[in-house]
Please model this.
Amino acid sequence: MNLLVMVMSPIFKLAYIVLVLAYSSCLAIEKNLENKEGLDLLHYFLLAMNFCFLFDSISKMIVMGLFRHKNSYLRDIFHVLDFFIVIVG
Model:
């Protein structure tokens, strides 16, 4: 499958929204979870989701370009915020 088609598809965008909701839910659960094994599993799950967010950012950078033209990845404030959150996470 072409990377451009994949990144711009509605299914990819829906998967991203579901991933954000799942990540937010896991962060909420993490604060109330006392089981050591459950916390370890949750941390691995959060790490896997961070890699999914990183894949999303990198694939959009490849498709859209990094900064040169007016529609590039880092010229959109939403993408700048998204990239900052991915790097911090």
